[in-house]
From TrEMBL:
Keywords in alphabetical order: Oxidoreductase
Source organism of the structure: Streptomyces koelreuteriae
Alphabetized Pfam families for the sequence: Aldedh
Domain of life: Bacteria
Name the record gives this protein: NAD-dependent succinate-semialdehyde dehydrogenase
Keyword Amino-acid biosynthesis: no
Aldehyde dehydrogenase domain residues: 14-473
Family indicated by similarity: Belongs to the aldehyde dehydrogenase family.
Residues the record marks as active site: 251
Length: 479
C-alpha cells in the first residue's frame, strides 16, 4: 500500500494546518486510531479559497478536451488501485471489502462519465423573435465551489461532485466528513498525478466544519455550494448561502418507502429488499426505511427476509466472507438501538436480530421487525442501520398516501408484476427516483436526487454538469 496522505491539499501542495492541529481517524471495527490527519481552521480555509479563486480564470480557459483527459486518466488510476483504495475505505468507514471495491468502481465511473460530458457542453445561436437581434448563448463555469461530503460513501460522494466541477471548468474546495478524510486525500493525490493543475482542487480536512465553511459561504468569492448530508445541516447551509446568493445543490436525507404488492414476485422483492436495505449496512440515503407489504403476503415476506438477513455474516470489513461491517461510530449505533427499542415498546415483533453484540467495534446485527406501529419513531427518522421495519397495507390508494406522508422524497421502491400498477404507483410517489422491481437505482449515467426536503438539483446523468454551469447570452443587433 502506498503512503497514507494525511495533510491538507492547498494550491497543489501538501501542508499542515496553520495552527498545527490534527485530528484522529478511527477504525470503526476496532475503535483504534488509524491515523492523525491535519485539522484545518479558518486560516486554512482562507488559503484554500485564495488558491481556488486564483486558479479559476485559467482553469475556465483550459480546453475542454484537456479537462476531459485529466478525468479520464484519474478514472484509470482509480481502477488500477482498486484494492488499495478499497482497503483504505474499509479501514476508515467499515464497509466490507467487496462493497468497498464496488464503490471504487462506482466512484471511478463518475470521472469517466464526466470526462465524456466535458467535451459536450453546448451553447446556441439564433435570431430573436423581433428579427432585430441575434442571440449568442454560451455556458460558463459557475466559479469556485465548496463541496461538502458525508462519510457513508467516502470516495463516490467526492467523485460525484469533483467530476462535473472539473468537467465544467470550476475550481473547488472539498471538505470531507471528519470520519473518512483518508479516501478524499487519496483522491486528491490521484488527481494531482493525473495532471490536475495546482489550485483547481483543494482539500481541507477538519473537525471544525462551521469555522471553516461559514466564512467561505458568506464571503462572496465562493459561487457554488454542493452539499451531501443530512437535511438538518442542509437547511442551515442554505441559510448561510442566502447572504452572498450562492448557488446550491443539496443532496439530503431520505425516508424511502419499499412497497410490496400482493402480485409481486416475492423472490424478486426479497432480493430487492436485501439490496435496498443492506447496501452499505443500511447507511445510505437510498436505504429502504419503511417496508409497506400487502397484508396477504406480509407474513411470508417477513419470514423470507428474516431468513436472508439472519444468514449474513457480521464482522470486520477486512475479513473474508463478511457481509455486514460495523456502523460508522458509537453515536450512529446508539441511534439505531434507540429506534429499535422504541419500535419494540410500541408492539413490533423482532423476527431476527435486535441485540447489540458484546465486544469492541460498532457492530449491529441485521434486524427485521414486523407489525411495526406507524407511530414508531423510525417511521419518520432515517434509521441508517441494518434494520428493516415492516408494516402492512390493504389497498393502493392507502399505501400511496402513507408512503407520501413524509417531508422527504428521495427514492421509493415498488414491487408488482402488473406494469400498469407499477407505473401508476411509481408516478404517484413524491420522490426523485423509483426502483420498480429493483432495489438499486444509483448509476452515474442517471440523474440522482430528491424532491421535497430531500434536496435541490441532481448529480450524475446528462444534467449533472448543469449544476456547475451558468448561461451567458449575448445580444447582437442585426445590421
Ligand atoms: P451530516 O451530519 O449532515 O454531515 C455531512 C457533512 O456536512 C459532513 O462533512 C459534516 O462535517 C458537514 N457539516 C456538518 N455541519 C456543518 C456545518 N455547520 N458547516 C459545514 N459543514 C457541516 O451528515 P452525515 O451524518 O455525514 O451523513 C449522513 C446523511 O447524509 C444522511 O442524512 C444521508 O441521507 C445523507 N446522504 C444523502 C445523500 C444524497 O445523495 N441525497 C447521499 C449520502 C448521504 P462534520 O461531521 O464535521 O459536521
Amino acid at each position: 500500500m502506498t503512503e497514507v496522505l494525511n495533510q491538507l491539499f492547498i494550491g497543489g501542495a501538501w501542508v499542515d494546518a496553520a495552527d498545527g492541529a490534527t485530528m484522529p481517524v478511527d477504525d470503526p471495527a476496532t475503535g483504534e486510531i488509524l491515523s492523525q490527519v491535519a485539522d484545518a481552521g479558518a486560516k486554512d480555509a482562507r488559503l484554500a479559497e485564495e488558491a481556488a479563486v486564483q486558479a479559476q480564470a485559467e482553469w475556465a480557459r483550459t480546453a475542454p478536451r484537456a479537462r476531459s483527459e485529466i478525468l479520464r486518466r484519474a478514472h484509470e488510476i482509480i481502477l488500477e488501485r482498486t484494492d488499495e483504495l478499497a482497503r483504505l475505505m474499509t479501514s476508515e468507514m467499515g464497509k466490507p471489502l467487496a462493497e468497498a471495491r464496488g464503490e471504487v468502481a462506482y466512484a471511478a465511473e463518475f470521472f469517466r462519465w464526466f470526462s465524456e460530458e466535458a467535451v459536450r457542453i453546448d451553447g446556441g445561436c439564433g435570431t430573436l423573435p423581433d428579427g432585430r437581434n441575434r442571440m449568442f448563448l454560451s455556458r460558463r463555469p459557475v466559479g469556485p465551489c465548496l463541496l461538502i461530503t458525508p462519510w457513508n460513501f467516502p470516495l463516490a460522494m467526492g467523485t460525484r461532485k469533483i467530476g462535473p466541477a472539473i468537467a465544467a471548468g470550476c475550481t473547488m474546495i472539498l471538505k470531507p466528513a471528519p470520519q473518512t478524510p483518508l479516501s478524499s486525500l487519496a483522491l486528491a493525490g490521484i488527481l494531482k498525478e493525473a495532471g490536475l493543475p495546482d489550485g483547481v482542487l483543494n482539500v481541507v480536512t477538519t473537525s471544525r466544519a462551521g469555522e471553516v465553511c461559514e466564512p467561505l459561504l458568506r464571503g462572496g468569492r465562493i459561487r457554488k455550494l454542493s452539499f451531501t448530508g443530512s437535511t438538518a445541516v442542509g437547511r442551515l447551509l442554505l441559510a448561510q448561502c442566502a447572504d452572498a446568493v450562492v448557488r446550491t445543490s443539496m443532496e439530503l436525507g431520505g425516508n424511502a418507502p419499499f412497497i410490496v404488492f400482493d402480485d409481486a414476485d416475492l423472490d424478486v422483492a426479497v432480493d430487492g429488499a436485501m439490496v435496498a436495505k443492506m447496501r452499505n449496512m443500511g447507511e445510505a440515503c437510498t436505504a429502504a426505511n419503511r417496508f409497506f407489504v400487502h397484508r396477504s403476503v406480509a407474513e411470508e415476506f417477513g419470514r423470507r427476509l428474516a431468513e436472508r438477513m439472519g444468514a449474513l455474516e457480521v464482522g470486520p470489513g477486512t475479513r473474508d466472507g463478511v457481509d455486514v461491517g460495523p456502523l460508522i461510530d458509537i453515536v450512529g449505533r446508539a441511534k439505531v438501538e434507540e429506534l429499535v427499542a422504541d419500535a419494540v415498546e410500541r408492539g413490533a415483533e423482532v423476527l431476527v436480530g435486535g441485540q447489540t453484540p458484546e465486544g469492541p467495534g460498532c457492530f449491529y446485527p441485521p434486524t427485521v421487525l414486523a407489525e411495526v406501529s406507524p407511530e414508531s419513531r423510525l417511521m419518520d427518522t432515517e434509521i441508517f442501520g441494518p434494520v428493516a421495519a415492516i408494516l402492512t397495507f390493504d389497498d393502493e390508494d392507502e399505501v400511496l398516501r402513507r408512503a407520501n406522508d413524509t417531508p422527504w422524497g428521495l427514492v421509493g421502491y415498488v414491487f408488482t408484476e402488473g406494469l400498469d400498477r407499477g407505473l401508476r404507483v411509481s408516478e404517484g410517489l413524491e420522490v426523485g427516483m423509483v426502483g420498480l422491481n429493483t432495489g438499486l437505482v444509483s448509476n452515474p449515467a442517471a440523474p440522482f436526487g430528491g424532491v421535497k426536503q430531500s434536496g435541490l438539483g441532481r448529480e450524475g446523468g446528462r444534467v449533472g454538469i448543469d449544476e456547475f454551469l451558468e448561461y451567458q447570452y449575448i445580444a447582437v443587433p442585426v445590421r
